Structure formats: structure tokens, C-alpha cells
Amino acid sequence: QNVKQVHRTGYHFQPKQNWINDPNGPMYYKGVYHLFYQYNPKGAVWGNIVWAHSVSTDLINWHPLEHAIFPSKPFDKYGCWSGSATILPGNKPVILYTGIVEGPPKNVQVQNYAIPANLSDPYLRKWIKPDNNPLVIANNGENSTAFRDPTTAWLDKSGHWKMLVGSKRHQRGIAYLYRSKDFIKWTKAKHPIHSQAETGMWECPDFFPVSLKGLNGLDTSVTGENVKHVLKVSLDITRYEYYTVGTYFTEKDRYVPDNTLVDGWAGLRYDYGNFYASKTFFDPSKNRRILWGWANESDSAEHDVTKGWAGIQLIPRTLWLDPSGKQLMQWPIEELETLRGSKVELSKKQKLGKGHLVEVKGITAAQADVEVTFSFGSLEKAEPFDPKWLQYDAQKICSLKGSTVQGGLGPFGLLTLASEKLEEYTPVFFRVFKAQNTHKVLMCSDATRSSLMKGLYTPSFAGFVDVDIAVDKKISLRSLIDNSVVESFGAKGRTCISSRVYPTLAVYENAHLYVFNNGSETITVENLDAWSMRKPLRMN
Ligand code: FRU
Question: Which of 120, 240, 407, 524 could form a disulfide with 519 if both were Cys (CB 3.0 to 4.6 A apart)?
């Protein structure tokens, strides 16, 4: 077995080799999707950061180009860190990014811009970093070593551009707001657009409008009636991302999260697993907002060096506001379905009694797309939700109540990347609990038993699913399985969880897929469709 390559992905974005992290400046320009990303040209660990650049016409097949932005000037001598693209009127893209400059102190962060050398090249191969950089420096009390990741800018009605820069002051996370008339001269607003005590550094902020009416995405400058705003930050301390939905008061340039939501690290997440430093962009060709997120490795740095690579981008997701206004919904971009090959269906209405395990045969289980809907007759057997768990997060409950701990209504779900004798498997499953006057639905993606290899990070990732399970009496799950990735969408994209796992036996044709039920209530598999997934023709 070539240990070096069994964990490479088949259809998730990754370059041939080396370290990658954050997606940067995604955009659509003249029929071409652009993805830039943080990249170390010299190895499989973080360092020497440049903006690598790949282009695609379908978000599936990717062509690598030369690095777009790399250290070459005093204003980015020690690194070209994360940033975003904005399309200026007249269809002129511009990139804002963080440059690392000579201190003291070490690692001073400034905000720079870059523009295409040739607007008639749809691939935007060459970028110019004009000499009037940097545009923004920390000279007003900002923390110069925690001052980075400029957002896509938006234009207000009076012709002012606005953008955010992530920061912190002591342990207060901050998104500073800057304004400009000409995109060159930027002035800090008196108040940040938002901040939150005790959350630490806000990396990679993202701020964008979502529609209260329908699934369409909105261009970043849209405001007005039937529009809410989303603020997402990546918290350095927990290494997770959090978002709120709220109101953007355009006059005052303040964002106020809806008070039904928790602002901070007990709040909502795009993904309850391995998903960080994400960024959205508006795709005008299909009127949708697309989310890109990075998943790092869960193996050791030594293993990464042996593999020769580390980090992937997860599948781009279309994202929209749930009609309730209380959370976002996400779904893999429709283009992914073009990679679906041979399909198998489980016979409809298959019953899963307590302890049942049914194999889904006939697909490449190591590289697959599975959609399943489970139903059940009654919630009577749902286990009680222990009130002391109210202080726990979902992950802790999942680690106590894993897939092998027998339950009432659940655990039921998929066993992905399973070896024949179940020495290895990654279950993605639901458990329903009866709490006071309500039910709680827990979704888990549990890496505890994913590999016989030592030295791996194997968390029991989990999130709650906000559904009215007593009314629905069914719940769906879609999992994108890709050799070392299990990326799952519960209840049509209401709760998403991504795991990185490194099976040693359950690889290639030795990987198996099962549906299981380990609860006393019988579960019906209403329908299950699974596809072998092809590799894109071109992946970097
Ligand atoms: C997030 C991050 C950003 C920074 C970049 C450096 O993963 O730390 O804040 O710009 O990565 O590579």
C-alpha cells in the first residue's frame, strides 16, 4: 500500500503537493471562477506564504496558474496573507490582502491591494502591486500583529466603499470598519462594525447580505428591505468559525446580531467539524452565494511531511437564509453532481431494527456521494436529555453517546469508510433526545474509530439540528466521502459536519458503506441513493 497517497482526495480541491490553508479572493470574472489560497511553495508545513491561484469554469475541474501574489516588496516582504476580491464598477477586480512587513515588533500586518495586469485576460494571470501600498496600517491604536484578513468591500448609496479588517484588543475580538471614496485612501470609522468580549482574535471576517425571500444570493453591496446580514468570524482560540444573522444599520455602519442568537463561541457554526477560514463570494452567473472553507489535516505534522501535502478545500457550498431567518442553510454546489458515476439504491422502505447493519454495495465506498432519508413511527423511545448536559456542547455529548452506545430513537445513520470487519469506521448519525417540552436532535461525525493509525486527532464532532422532529418524523443526511474526507449535510443542509480521517484498512476498494440503527425504535430507510464519485478530469 502506498501510504503516501491513499489519503489524497479524489474530488476535493487540493494542489499536487505542499501545505495549503485559507481560500482567498474567490470570484467570478468573465466566465471563469478564480480561487486563490494560502500556499507554502516549499513544503507541507505552514510558512513562506503566497497566494496560489487556480481557475475553473465549473468549480469542479481546476487549472493551476502561476502564483498570483508573492512576497516581493517591502510591504509584503515576509508573507502574503489572507484577503478578498472586490469587483469594482466597470468589471475591474481588485484584491485586498494582508502583507507581513519588517517590525518591530515581528510580524507587523498591513493591508495591501493588487490589480490585474491585463483585464482582457479572463484568467487574470498577472497581478500588479502598486507602489502606493500599503493602503492601511495599524496607526490608530490597533494591534499591529493582530490586524489582518480584509473582506470583500461593499459600496454604499453615497458612493463610499467599506471593508472590514479582523483584529483584537486584549481578548476582545474586533472587526474594524474602513471607508474610502477611491479605494486607495481608507479611513477607519470611529466604531468597529462589531466586536465581542473574550472571543480573541477575529480571523477572516466575512460580512454579506442574505435574502429573506428565496434562495438567491445577493451581491455584497445589496441592502434594503427583505435583506438581513451575516457576520462570520474565525476564532483563533477555538479554531472554529461562528456566525450570526442580524441587521446592518447602514447609516451608522453598525451590525447588530438578532437577539435570538448567541454571539460568540456558543453560537451558530457553518460546520461543526473541521472547517476554517472560510469565505463567501457572489456568483452572478447563477445568482448564488458560494461558501469555500479550508479543512486542515488531523494527522501529525510528521505524517504531513511524509505525505508531502497538507490541507484541502472542502466542496463549495451554496448558502442561503432559512425562511425562519434564524440560521443559514448550505448545500454542495449543483455542479458536484456531474461527478456522480454509477448509482445504487437501497430498496425503498427498508426497515432497520435494533442493531441492524445493512451494507450499501456496488459503489466505490471510499469515494462516494450518499443521500438518505430516515423515518420512524414514534418518538416515544427517545432517551431523556440529561439536564446536566445543558452545560455541555454537542461534541461532548457525542463523545459520551457514540454510535455504539445503544439508544432509543437512534443512533441511526451511515457508517462511512468502514473496513470489512469494522476495525475502522467513521459513523455519521443522529440521536433524538426527549428534553422538557421538546426534542433535541444531535448529529455526530465521530472519528474515534476511524483509523488504526496512532497519533491522529479523532474528535467526536457534533452539532444540534434545529428541526421539529416530532412533526417531521423523518430526517435526511447527505455525506460526501472522499478517501480522507467525510463531509456531511444533515436535514438538507441545516447542520453540516466535516471530518478528516485516515483509515489504514478501509481504503480504495476495501472501504465499505453501511446504514445502521443502534436504537430500540425501528428506523425506516425511506430512500437511499449512493453514487460512485469520479475524479474531475483536471485537478491542479
Ligand atoms: C487563518 C490565518 C489568517 C492569516 C492566514 C495566514 O487561517 O491565520 O488569519 O491571514 O491564515 O496564512
Answer: 407
Q: Does the C-beta of 201 come closer than 6 Å to ligand 1?
A: no
The catalytically annotated residue of 22, 236, 446, 482 is: 22
CA atoms within 13 A on the CB side of 75: 18
Partners of 249 in the β-ladder: 254
Active site residue 299: no
Model confidence pLDDT, tens digit, residues 306-348: 999 999 999 999 999 999 999 999 999 999 999 999 999 998 8
22 CA distance to ligand 1 middle (Å): 7
Nearest atom in ligand 1 to 98's CA: 10
Angle at 230 between CA 228 and CA 85, to 5 degrees: 115
CA distance 2 to 8: 11
Could you tell me the CA-to-CA distances from 469 to 108, 385, 428, 442, 473 in Å, in that order? Answer: 50, 15, 18, 11, 5
Predicted local confidence at residue 2, as pLDDT: 43
ω into residue 104 within 30 of 0, thus cis? yes
CB of 149 closer than 6 angstroms to any ligand 1 atom? yes
DSSP character for 334? G
Element (H, E) at 369: strand 367-376
Q: Which long-range contacts (CB under 8 A, 24 or more apart) does 195-198 make?
A: 195/169, 196/172, 196/263, 196/264, 197/171, 197/172, 198/171, 198/172, 198/264
Rounded Cα distance, 79 and 85, in Å: 18
Letter string b/e over residues 101-121, b meaning 16 or more CB atoms within 10 A of that residue's CB? beeeeebbbbbbbbbbeeeee
Residues of the chain with pLDDT under 50: 1-3
Distance (angstroms) between ligand 1 centre and the Cα of 203 equals 7
Under DSSP, the state recorded for 384 is E
- Residue 87's nearest CA partner among 78, 77, 79, 96 is 96
**Per-residue model confidence as pLDDT tens digits over 382-394:** 999 999 999 999 9
Note whether 45 and 301 are within 8 A (CB).
yes
The grid coordinates of residue 387 equal 439536564
